[in-house]
Amino acid sequence: MNHLLSDRINNMSTSATLAMAAKTRELKTQGKDIIGLSLGEPDFNTPDFIKEAAIQAINDNYNSYSPVDGYADLKDAIITKFKRDNHLTYTPNQIVVSTGAKQSLANVAGVMLNEGDEVILPCPYWVSYSDIVKLYDGVPVEVPTGIETNFKMTPQQLEAAITPKTKMIWFSSPCNPSGSVYSKEELEGLAEVIKKHPNIFVVSDEIYELINYTKNGHYSIAQVDGMYDRTVTVNGVSKAFAMTGWRIGYIGAPEWIARACNKMQGQITSGANCIAQRAVINALNASPSKVQYMIDEFKVRRDLVLDLLNEVPGFKTNVPDGAFYVFPDVTYYFGKTLRGKTINNATDFSLYLLEEALVATVTGDAFGDSNCIRISYAASQEEIKEAIKRIKDAVS
Ligand code: PMP
Ligand code: GLU
What CATH number does residue 29 fall under? Predict the structure, then answer.
């Protein structure tokens, strides 16, 4: 009966990260000992100081619809966070709280794109960008990067990708899936190009902001001179605060874009979950040092994964500066036959690892880069060690 469904949904791919997570759950239920390194989800519990605020909110009878764009005191906490961490000044009408950064991104696509508008996506990009853009009749324009340039787009590549139809550029830094972090200077370089095109806007996805191992830390493209009015800064609490299931994300944006997102959300979901919003006030008002223990542990795991992968033949990795993924180039295996199975591409390789090593990863195809696979190290050190041992055995 699928032909009775809309073209819109029939043309959409299933989220590869969520599909792999579902497959992992299914295989585990069947008793298979799968190690899941596919999903980008911290394996920590939400910190107590955040949970307590949610319990308090339930007891205080927060049970009514919230304002569509978020509680005023949550927006104040977001404004304070932007000022404190990013030196960005917003007013309440420039902030919209949503059901996860994913909804924030969908809102922006919905309010900015007309049919045929092009959105530049440096590859690899986060799995959902391309389908969200297509859902709203936009055209994703992929700009391939590669491990040689640490998976970062250069100003020259950006310039070459711009056409009269370019409406937006979407990217994440720290990047899911490559872990690359754009420096201030690199962002300034991209901004020089963007500023030559007054009708191009940027979506800067900064959800991994705090999971950054560089000594210079995070920089937002909206901080670059002339970019504030052209940038929607997307952020959320899923990653650094271990709150994936709470579903809160937000944007800081030019007021006309924020108002449009508010209108869009008012017709689709209304305000985000009220208990979660109350808890996020505590998360954002706290000093980022309160979650440093998780970031420190992610860094230890990053180093562990890189060390261990170094001993696996055919895995070429960059040094990810943030987030909790490595994105090895595995082209070495293409055309080879392992245990009677021919590996033609990254999808075959990722499936091979699932079937033969019982380790779940995600094919780079889902992120617009067919040379690589994504390994999430948001897993315990024991799981990481065992997973890479199994991978090594399976490819030997
Ligand atoms: N952007 C990136 C780069 C992500 O990795 C994720 C992870 N889910 C999201 C957005 C969406 O996050 P959220 O859980 O806030 O919807
Ligand atoms: N962002 C995470 C990932 O890339 C969660 C999954 C999702 O939201 O698609 O794995």
Answer: 3.90.1150.10
User: Burial level of 155, CB count in 10 A (0-12/13-18/19+)?
Assistant: middle
Determine whether the shortest distance from the Cβ of 158 to ligand 2 is under 6 A.
no
Domain boundary, last residue among 286, 312, 334: 286
CA distance readout (Å), 85 to 77, 239, 244, 271? 12, 16, 21, 25
Ligand number with the minimum distance to the CA of 323: 1
Number of domains observed in the structure of the chain? 2
Largest CA distance in the chain: 62
Could you list the residue range(s) of the whole structural domain that residue 327 is in?
2-45+291-395
CA atoms within 13 A on the CB side of 259: 5
CB contact set of 84 (below 8 Å; sequence gap of 6+)? none
CA of 317 to the centre of ligand 1 (A): 23
In this prediction, residue 392 carries a pLDDT of 97
Ligand 2 pocket, 24 CB below 6 A?
no
- Residues 23, 77, single domain; the answer is no
pTM (2 decimals)?
Answer: 0.96
Q: Quickly state the pLDDT bin for 21 (edges 50, 70, 90).
A: confident
| Cα 284 to Cα 181: distance, rounded to the nearest angstrom | 22
